[in-house]
Design a protein that fits this description.
This protein is of the alpha+beta class and 226 residues long. It is 36% helix and 20% strand. The relative contact order is 0.21.
Length: 226
Amino acid sequence: MKKLLSVILSIVCLFAFCACGTAEEAQDEFLSEIQGSFIELFPELSKEEYHDAWVEAVEPLVGEDAAEDTIAYLLNVCMGSLYGEEAIAKYEADPESMQFNCYYIGGVAMMTVEGNTITGVDADGNVVFSHSYSPVDLENENGFLFYQSADADAGQFTYFAFSPDTMEETFHLEFRYAEDLDDLQSWFEGSYAYWNVGAIAEDYTEEEILGAINLFATENLSGEEE
């Protein structure tokens, strides 16, 4: 259980990130660094066309015999369907089944950041939400950068909490959103426990997807105890 939790905690912070300057400076500049449209990361990472890239990244770290099982595990642990109280109850009863839901929720299929406006659309391109956001000065042990919409009807999309990852630095984004700021304080408690969106640019390049795979494998497997 200790090893499993250690791996999952590492995977929650999918890749190492670099946050230069003060937290306040990073927050002020962050949205300008993630302009564009973003789709879910793990459906892309799990495409068969990238399997050989996974093998090339994982095999040197765990050996040929363990490579396939390790790849399947790394992907599976980030492709759960549960979150919130349902996930808490399940994983308390069966810790070995623990997964993170790294998908969009609330009907969103793609998110676009344009200036300080964040817009989410569904699978048919219909707008689910679109609001302008401003930084919230709030310290958090997980290193999140918080943003708030001034729109009274923003509902589930009132607050965003971003890890300071960018396509340029780590080939992906990580974030969460909620109506209540308290629900964004912990990965393991509250209405959105075990949920953390992993996203990648809609128009990602081969270099970026391969970079994501290599960084994901390296950060989660290097130095892992047997």
